[in-house]
Amino acid sequence: MKRYYWMLLVLLGVWVLAQDSSLPGVKEAGSYTQGSLGQVLQPLPVTNAQPDGVYGVGAWPLYTPELADGPGKELVMGYCQVCHSATYITMQPPLPAATWEAEVQKMIKTFGAQIPDEAAKQITAYLQAHYTPETRKP
Amino acid sequence: MDNPMQRRTFLSRAIGVLAAAGALPLVKAQTSSQASEALPSFTGPQANPYWNGVNPFVVYPQKLPLLRLTDRGIQLETPRQYFRTAFTPNEAFFVRYHLDLIPNSIDLSSWRLHIEGNVEKPLTLSMQDLLTRFKPVSVAAVNQCSGNSRSRFQPRVAGGQWGNGAMGNALWTGVRLMDLLQEAGVKPGTVQLQFQGLERGPGPEGKGSNAFMKSLDWNDPVLQECVIAYQMNGEPLPMLNGFPVRLVVPGKFSTYWMKHLTWIRALTQPDDNFWMAIAYRIPDTPRGNTTPADVAAGKVKTVPIGNVNMPVRSFIVDPDGSSKLVVGLPVEIRGVAFSGYGRVTRVEVSLDGGKTWRVAQLGEYYGPYSFRTWSFQWKPTQPGRYTLAVRATDEKGNVQPDEPVWNPGGYLWNRIERQDVVVGTAS
């Protein structure tokens, strides 16, 4: 029985030592937490390529973040994403309402986006409701 | 997520009990260091204060994790740490497309480079032709996006929100543009050369959303230095950097460095396509500087960004502020510098935010258009907070200014760069 007390004391000692802030200069040690910075997988090498004239890399991966929820979101996802991913919206800094209006008009007039007037209005209103200095949320 | 906290609470209680018994000193509560926390998902309406943009790391074919601005079209920024060397690794080299229909796979048995338009003899050249019929040449040159550092602008402007990583330096090997044009015989009456690659979009024909094309003036002396590169740092070009060949235009912004170059056209009329007439234009003012008020008033006359070369710039790569420095321990302040106007002749470092300057040591010279590394040995003698700064001078006498620039496109940023550091005590 005495032997077990002794072992328990050693275990407690090891455990205390592992957390011991009295180690010279150690202000903190043995602290872990769930990583918030994420992980990414390594790509596989090209293992089965033929020695011919074709040089391919497969499909380009998409990394499109979710847009803010609200009226007009589906229109944005439908019309805007004909030509580009919605990441073009989330990447921007908060832009003034007038800038978003101009961006939508630029897509229609300069780039030839086929967006009916009513949809364009709702798309502009959506962008202004979520992506201006006053409205943008992290 | 709660587990470690519970464990910590339990531990402090346990240790507290022991401490109360006089066995152990008290433990202070944990404080997180900033380096373990994620940056915000966006910056603004103020300027982005970080070296890179705040975007997440992502992996693409033939690339190490880069910072994703957009995923269709693809825009990826090079992280700061890859600028420690004069040559930027291909797998870390930034990516900037405008449109989304870009090649995933190219068959060199059917791919050809076409030289057409106002020429005596139109040419159709295979990769084999380029590799065997023309003399290879190499040039070290910085490829920098026109909008590099756009996220520094105040007020912020729409567009790719790059930090400083929309640039890279490589040794480009290929054939001289002029060698090909000589064989084709450019006819009198040619005013511009138009370059088109395999970057297309779903937009209507004739719109900028359909095809990406750029043109250089036929009398621009840069044409003599242009290379059609099939190698980048001694390797085939990554697909995302323009495989099989791209145009290299030393000293000019990357918008002219056409990726997947497939057509070269001698034009008898100036190119009025969207990417020349409307996009990539700068105010015809010193530094391309203007104000939102002048733009709104319609006062600003613009010219293509190809009318200027890249202004002189320099960057602090280390120390990067991710950790504290130790007083009395030497630190190498280092980075890269370049100018589109030629050789960097001087780099100066400031330890007091730009009040006083000291000359840094320059690294090896790889040619007038290459990055030039620089370094400065610093042994901080007092703990505290310091603002480091760097400025470069080129052979034409251009010195980096400390005034910001503003234009609606977010182009030509070259203000002096700064880095805040914290020096701790050693005892």
Automatic annotation (TrEMBL), chain A:
Organism superkingdom: Bacteria
Entry-linked InterPro entries: Cyt_c-like_dom_sf
Gene Ontology MF terms: electron transfer activity; heme binding
SUPFAM superfamilies, per database record: Cytochrome c
Protein name: Sulfide dehydrogenase
Automatic annotation (TrEMBL), chain B:
Cofactor: Mo-molybdopterin
UniProt keyword Plastid present: no
Domain Oxidoreductase molybdopterin-binding: 102-275
GO BP: sulfur compound metabolic process
Keyword Metal-binding (UniProt): yes
Recorded superkingdom: Bacteria
Domain Moybdenum cofactor oxidoreductase dimerisation: 309-414
Pfam families in UniProt: Mo-co_dimer, Oxidored_molyb
UniProt keyword annotations, A-Z: Metal-binding, Molybdenum, Oxidoreductase, Signal
Entry's Gene Ontology molecular function annotations: heme binding; molybdenum ion binding; molybdopterin cofactor binding; sulfite oxidase activity
Enzyme class, first EC level, given as a word: oxidoreductase
Region forming the signal peptide: 1-29
InterPro entries: Ig_E-set, MoCF_OxRdtse_dimer, Mopterin_OxRdtase_euk, OxRdtase_Mopterin-bd_dom, OxRdtase_Mopterin-bd_sf, TAT_signal
EC number, as in UniProt: 1.8.-.-
Name used for this protein in its record: Sulfoxide reductase catalytic subunit YedY
Organism of provenance: Meiothermus luteus
Taxonomic placement: Bacteria, Thermotogati, Deinococcota, Deinococci, Thermales
